[in-house]
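Format notes (please read before filing issues)

Several people have asked whether sequences and structure tokens are stored in separate files. They are not. Every record keeps both together, in the order shown below: the sequence lines, then the token lines. Line labels are part of the format and must not be stripped during preprocessing.
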Amino acid sequence: MCGFHSGRHGGGRGVFRIVVGVDGSDSSLAALEWALDEARLRSGQVQVVTVWHYPIIGDAAGRAEDYEAFGETARGVHADALRRASEAGVPATGEVTEGHPADVLLKTTVGADLLVVGSRGHGGFAGLFLGSVSSHAVQHAPCPVLVLRAGAESVQG
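Then the structure lines:
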């Protein structure tokens, strides 16, 4: 686990709020598990954000069924993340949004104490949470950011 202290976040102003980006990739699920553990330790809450984007290739927009399939997949990933939070006993809220992952995450982190994202996401599943998203978050988020990769060993202490 990674410990940190930031004087401007979580300074006794209420419940510690962790925003976590989840797209179903291994690294985003590692980020979710870390966020749930940290929220439990801090008696905090997690806000799960799942962002999807329908890829337009060339001039073709695709069929309506294909478009809806991306949204359905994202809603399923999000529901699974909220289920995991419930099973862990951590209060969780969240949203599924169509848009650019980096933009949506940054808007969601306003007032948050911490943003947790995976280092790389699904390339095929609408290109969510690519390494460029975690990089953008580190550079522009208004709160501390933790980037996790799948398979990273957890350090307890």
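For reference, the curators noted about this record: The chain has one domain: 19-147. The CA atoms of residues 20 and 131 lie 15 Å apart.
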